[in-house]
Amino acid sequence: MSKEIEAIAADIVDCAVKVHKQFGPGLLESAYQACHAYELRKHGRIVLTELKLPIVYDGQEFDEGYRIDELVDNLVIIENKSVDTVHPIHLAQLITYLKLKDCKLGFLINWNVKLIKNGIQRVVNGLEEPALPVKFIKNP
């Protein structure tokens, strides 16, 4: 991953921690998304929310209702959830968006967790392996 994408990723995680620290679990996905996008913009990031994502097939464009929750600096996609359990379909949804938008990195964030570090999954487009949770390392 490029340094630019990794810097965006760091901001995404930092802002998620800040928002979750304020509210904890229990809000609607849309509330977390609005606050998270606001925090990212404060960091100088360009964030588009609820961005329509058409399907292009055989040279034709179809608007089938796909929407990216957050697109950061036109490079990283965030799919927000506020659910009891993240299911494989949620991960498949993010992977589909990454492929359709041709982005290399995405985050699946489940806000409905006690510790946000347990709700963040980093997903790289093109990897065969399943997504792994973000690892947090404390500075000594």
Q: Can you summarize this structure?
A:
With 140 residues, the protein is of the alpha+beta class.
Low-confidence segments: none
CATH architecture type? 3-Layer(aba) Sandwich
Report, as a whole number of angstroms, the end-to-end distance.
26 Å
* CATH secondary-structure class: Alpha Beta
Shape, please? globular
Q: Overview of this structure, please?
A:
- This protein is of the alpha+beta class and 140 residues long.
- The chain has one domain (3-127): Trna Endonuclease, Chain: A, domain 1.
- 35% of the residues lie in helices and 26% in strands.
- The chain has three helices and eight strands; from the N terminus they run H-H-E-E-E-E-E-H-E-E-E.
- The chain has helices at residues 3-23, 29-42, 88-101; strands at 47-52, 55-57, 60-62, 67-72, 76-81, 105-110, 120-124, 132-133.
- Helix 1 crosses helix 2.
- The longest helix has 21 residues, at 3-23.
- The protein is globular, with a radius of gyration of 15 Å.
- The chain starts with a helix and ends in a 7-residue tail after the last strand.
Task: Sum up the structure in keywords.
140 residues; alpha+beta; Trna Endonuclease, Chain: A, domain 1; two-stranded antiparallel ribbon; 8 strands
Topology, please?
Blueprint (H helix, E strand, L loop, with lengths): L2 H21 L5 H14 L4 E6 L2 E3 L2 E3 L4 E6 L3 E6 L6 H14 L3 E6 L9 E5 L7 E2 L7
Parallel strand pairs: 5-6
Antiparallel strand pairs: 1-4, 2-3, 4-5, 6-7, 7-8
Helix pairs in contact: 1-2
